[in-house]
Input
Amino acid sequence: MQDPLLKQYDFAVIGAGPAGLLAALNLTQANAQPRGGKTYSIALLDKRDPWREPVSCAEGVSAHGLKAIVPKVSSSWIRETVDGVIFVSPNGTPVTFTQPGSGLLIDRALMHKDLAEQAQRAGAHCNFRARTTAVSRYTDGWRTVKYEGTVTGELQARVVIDASGPGAGFGQGENIVQGDFDVEPALFALVSGIDYPVNYIQLFFGRNYAPGGYAWLFPRDQHVANVGLVIGKRFAKEAPARKAMQDFLARTYPNAKVETMQGGAIPCGYTHHPLAVENLFKAGDAANMVNPISRAGILEAMKGGALAAEAALKVIELASEREKEPFYRSYKSQWDDAYGKANMRIHKAKAAFTNISDATFDKAAGKLAAIPKEKLTLGKIFMTTLWSSPSLIWKMRSLF
Ligand SMILES: Cc1cc2nc3c(=O)[nH]c(=O)nc-3n(C[C@H](O)[C@H](O)[C@H](O)COP(=O)(O)OP(=O)(O)OC[C@H]3O[C@@H](n4cnc5c(N)ncnc54)[C@H](O)[C@@H]3O)c2cc1C
Output
């Protein structure tokens, strides 16, 4: 079979998930309005079609956040609109927070397909049967990307954006983030045969559900829901995710018919490592761009990919690391302004959050359940939980 990729590119993007797709799209946009008539060649590689179902995700995003990052959100990507969250405490007490239209449950497979096709139409060369196996050090103005799949080959790129998800290890040994910090096990199942409100997501907190993490139910539609959990890293050995999932399903949804179950890993700790070095940029999970407590990473990855592309376009014409350094730093500081600083504060508070006892959650839920739904705010839920064990306020001071 003939290799659809050329031997040399200006930019190679590894991974066509949210980070890689936004990076590729932003690079192609630069060709639409070339500076000084200059256009760039772009390769987008993935080891599999990024629209292959099921995507390892619960697919929940902030409605406002998605629209702010993606120029054109297609209505076909939206499975359901979320009008609020039902928090469930360890003893099963539900606390309902309502905010109509605040969230979206998206069809990531469709979104990935549309974005990949847009990138391809705009000129990116895509190969979704190309598993990258190695990225060389930067030598004589190039990095060599080796890949295997339907064809085995290699290409040279002047700039590489690694958006290949958690812990791929490209750039190992270089002074760059690796996406391997605080990686937590997650598991989700697509289930049918249970009842749930289709416009609310449900989050279950407590050691009996998912120690150090939480369990969830995110509706896909009226018939099928995404049910899953993430376990805090330090509990992963004592509470294996698969066993926790079986217990959660048996106890909470005994009638659930499991259609498929799949695992995943979430790199959800903040690190101070650089996001770029010597024409290698990292974005998304590959750069640990995940909220440490909510474990959300879709919009974070998209933002990271877009910012990486912006910085990469500035760096490509520069010769020395000294000239490039300010643009690497500006990538990091723009990321920090968008999500990074908040993630760092959340990361600092995470240990205390993870140690909240089941009794504290139950006490808070008991108080909150007595408050009329329309008067509940996220702030009130958070503060009531903290006041149910006042020492938490000091331990989680990084959040204030
Ligand atoms: C079970 C689960 C539920 C989640 N739920 C949510 C949620 O509801 N909301 C939310 O915001 N976040 C959620 N997340 C986190 C979110 O999925 C990730 O943070 C997000 O997908 C990161 O995007 P990315 O582009 O960086 O990486 P990915 O989405 O992982 O994309 C990486 C791409 O790179 C490809 N790839 C990997 N290795 C190679 C290689 N060697 N060569 C070529 N290609 C490669 C992969 O095939 C993939 O297409 C969840 C995560 C899990 C595991």
About this structure: The pocket of flavin-adenine dinucleotide is lined by residues 14-20, 45-48, 50, 56-61, 131-132, 163-165, 168, 186, 188, 228, 264, 266, 284-286, 290, 295-298, 301 (CB under 6 Å). The two ends are 58 Å apart (CA to CA). The chain has two domains: 8-53+109-181+269-352, 60-106+183-267+356-399.
